[in-house]
């Protein structure tokens, strides 16, 4: 099969039962994504497939043929970030949002996907139903918490994670206002 991971094309031969997570970790040595529950409940394995956040432990690798996969190792490059870190990675460091670090790769990939969902106007359970559907969703604390609720953190770094995401949202809004 052929798969593009972090902007590198890989031609791989593997068992058709191999999950995307196992392909990343065992065949490509991309160990940032973690195997937590292996049942899609903890979010430690979250990566981006064609820009959408997914639990890689639940996806068969062969079903992703031809897709673009971005792991935590490729976030900075995918964002065109200057320097070596994606803005969310920098904010996580600055806000101490990564205590033991096990859930951090999934939290980061989920947050990147969540930001794009909100920009494109995709609602969540807590999104104001009276807002125009073709506008970006305002990322309040409640909205961020809801959208990241599929990623669990045993250390309880949630307040710092929300702060880190808020920091990036504020910077992004400020940058758009300056450009506009």
TrEMBL record:
UniProt keyword annotations, A-Z: Iron, Metal-binding, Oxidoreductase
Gene3D superfamilies for the chain: 3.10.20.30, [2Fe-2S]-binding domain (1.10.150.120)
Keyword Metal-binding on entry: yes
Domain of life of the native organism: Bacteria
Record bears the keyword Metal-binding: yes
Domain 2Fe-2S ferredoxin-type span(s) in chain numbering: 1-75
Listed InterPro entries: 2Fe-2S-bd, 2Fe-2S-bd_dom_sf, 2Fe-2S_ferredoxin-like_sf, 2Fe-2S_ferredoxin-type, 2Fe2S_fd_BS, Aldehyde_Oxdr_Iron-Sulfur, Beta-grasp_dom_sf
Name listed for the protein in its UniProt record: 2Fe-2S iron-sulfur cluster-binding protein
Source organism per UniProt: Streptomyces melanogenes
Species lineage: Bacteria, Bacillati, Actinomycetota, Actinomycetes, Kitasatosporales
